[in-house]
Amino acid sequence: MVDAALKDGTADRRCVFEVFARRLPDGRRYGVAAGLGRFLTALTEFRFGDEEIGFLRDRDVIDEGTARWLADYRFTGDVRAYREGEVFFPESPVLQVEGTFAESVVLETLALSTFNADSAIAGAAARMVSAADGRPLAEMGSRRTGEWNAVAAARAAYIAGFGATSNLEAGRTWGIPTMGTAAHAFTLLHDSEEAAFRSQLDALGDGTTLLVDTYDIEAAVETAVRLTNGRLGAVRIDSGDLPSVVAAVRAQLDRLGAPATKITVTNDLDEYTIAALRAAPVDSYGVGTSVVSGSGHPAAGMVFKLVAHQTPAGDEWVPVAKKSADKVSTGGRKEAGRRLRNGIATAEVVLTSGRVGPDERPLLVPVVEHGEVDPAFLGVAGVEAARAHHKRAKAELPVDASRIGRGDPAIPTLVI
Amino acid sequence: MVDAALKDGTADRRCVFEVFARRLPDGRRYGVAAGLGRFLTALTEFRFGDEEIGFLRDRDVIDEGTARWLADYRFTGDVRAYREGEVFFPESPVLQVEGTFAESVVLETLALSTFNADSAIAGAAARMVSAADGRPLAEMGSRRTGEWNAVAAARAAYIAGFGATSNLEAGRTWGIPTMGTAAHAFTLLHDSEEAAFRSQLDALGDGTTLLVDTYDIEAAVETAVRLTNGRLGAVRIDSGDLPSVVAAVRAQLDRLGAPATKITVTNDLDEYTIAALRAAPVDSYGVGTSVVSGSGHPAAGMVFKLVAHQTPAGDEWVPVAKKSADKVSTGGRKEAGRRLRNGIATAEVVLTSGRVGPDERPLLVPVVEHGEVDPAFLGVAGVEAARAHHKRAKAELPVDASRIGRGDPAIPTLVI
């Protein structure tokens, strides 16, 4: 596309592209926009090196003119976006890129990869946070997704309200609190469960969490309490029918004089099994596969669409939209606001003309101006701001939005 | 775990860890092992740098002794594995790592991330290849998964029989054939569909593929044929009820004198919709979301388990296994063979002692010896070998294994 557009002169037409989802995953009541900080970080480094350009030339994907254009590539346009952590609905323009056709269109894959992957995880994580009803959640799914996705997943889950991750690289890169656990392998390695527990307590102190389900849970809990004189930090349970097992372990801990010892559970949890444990004396949850894979919806369904371009003379915007059978879009650059009544959201307002009204919280904020990324959205500070913003945005939703069962979007989208 | 094991002296116990799936995704008849080449590539570079170690020390995750151990880390053990592209079944030991406890246990996340992600994609892709019944498939899902997963996804799909990818980085890194398409944005950018088509034909020649569903498909096909005097390479359709639309477009192309112009379709395809197009005159498929997300099963469910360790004296192997309620494993180092009758697989044989029999194809091959990775499994050559091996292994399965409907594993696993 860039090759042809450079040749025919349309490459420099100023364009607006928008990222949005036509619908939410089946039954979900809201989405959570995540990935912005990663997209912007990547944008600051988005260049084409000699090796990449050489490959494209060797394969005859591009001609010499396009090769020169790529070598000089640097995004010079403007980007507005929903704040990271913001909730979104069908048609919400979560990202809006304005620049020349060529400089903007090459960002499609980067924008959608980061937004689709991270928003899928954040959307699932937010539901788990609701289901956990105030109890802390740790993201432990690195082994269930690609090795780099794992780092992004920890970040997205944290933005949506998880308290920690087992992914140490996410701690190093994004400042996310980290935690660790012992695996069954550690117990199996030792000549007895007691030897394994002693070793872990010697290394990490009585405040550690001991994994008690390698052999017999009741015997393991007895050993764990005895070795710590009841001062053990926590036990972890990773198998069995959790509601009944957790109740039995709690009773045993209390009986043995360890009422302060906490119980953490980690057995293939998702928002439904977390909710089913509300009445159980669980103190915290570790969640793996379901959160890193978006709990059944591993991509957020966002698309990157041209919505307007300037006339050849550059004096007017032309709204454009595909007109095919099953994928109708709305042309033109959007404004977006969340309509609130007494602080509670009543509608997502997407405007094709005019401005956001006085009862509507504006949703699009500038994040890149003339190619310069606003550093407030990057790094550790960006993650913390996103997490705080998510909490505020979620609090504005009608209370029913947090129910775990399937439903329609919590508020309607009004495209005006 | 490493910290505690270094302190208590068990870190140097020689161990065997195995990667396997307890079950296949619901209804799947076989799995496809992928990720080995990426795992081995990462293993050759698996080191802990000053920044990483500094972070772990600052956060008090490890002590000074463990920091020194990590700084010197280099895997010195042995690895055997199912060849990349091999099919697998429940309990198949697809990866077997032998080394000290500490040097092996730190590989868990790397091994599982690569194997779970890549095998999920390869398993889904293999079903789509069967459904396409000889017609070529292109992987086009980069925008529906994390930006680095996208490269791995293209690789895994190619190993399972896809013919090409739209991910250029996968072409550059792994030698996978690449292809591209024009987006609706390219047509919308131009002042008319005809202008967009002319531009693309000028840049890429009549052999290109024109996207014909931005406005009215019939009008677009007429324009496309007229501009190329019937010599157009192909048209792409990305919306609508594909069986009927494809039939109409084929009839129109033939009527307009373009019988050699091919039809490629790309509208949210998965193995079921591909199979539903068997009777339609489709020439090739482009598949996105469903292949990169494992078509409903984004992680292959593999685990990394300690199955044996040496006695403290180092003179004997002790088989070990967790004994908890719902996650039973089999201890001891495994051998594995595929039992064949007249060239067709009849059972997956997993042995806890003894050797693979004469009617069984041995499945575990050495890939790392004393820390040295066999280069045959790396890079472009490794990918091509994996693709070729997959084709052979799939051809051994009973013919019924390729049916798209749900079923049990195509052959039983005999753990002996």
TrEMBL record, chains A, B:
The keyword Ligase applies. Keywords: Glycosyltransferase, Ligase, Phosphoprotein, Pyridine nucleotide biosynthesis, Transferase. Pfam families: NAPRTase_N (PF17767). Its EC number is 6.3.4.21. It comes from the Bacteria. GO terms for molecular function: glycosyltransferase activity. The keyword Transferase applies. Pathway: Cofactor biosynthesis; NAD(+) biosynthesis; nicotinate D-ribonucleotide from nicotinate: step 1/1. It catalyses: 5-phospho-alpha-D-ribose 1-diphosphate + nicotinate + ATP + H2O = nicotinate beta-D-ribonucleotide + ADP + phosphate + diphosphate. Transiently phosphorylated on a His residue during the reaction cycle. Phosphorylation strongly increases the affinity for substrates and increases the rate of nicotinate D-ribonucleotide production. Dephosphorylation regenerates the low-affinity form of the enzyme, leading to product release. Residues 1-115 form the Nicotinate phosphoribosyltransferase N-terminal domain. Catalyzes the first step in the biosynthesis of NAD from nicotinic acid, the ATP-dependent synthesis of beta-nicotinate D-ribonucleotide from nicotinate and 5-phospho-D-ribose 1-phosphate. Belongs to the NAPRTase family. PANTHER family: NICOTINATE PHOSPHORIBOSYLTRANSFERASE (PTHR11098), NICOTINATE PHOSPHORIBOSYLTRANSFERASE PNCB1 (PTHR11098:SF8). This is Nicotinate phosphoribosyltransferase. It comes from Curtobacterium oceanosedimentum.
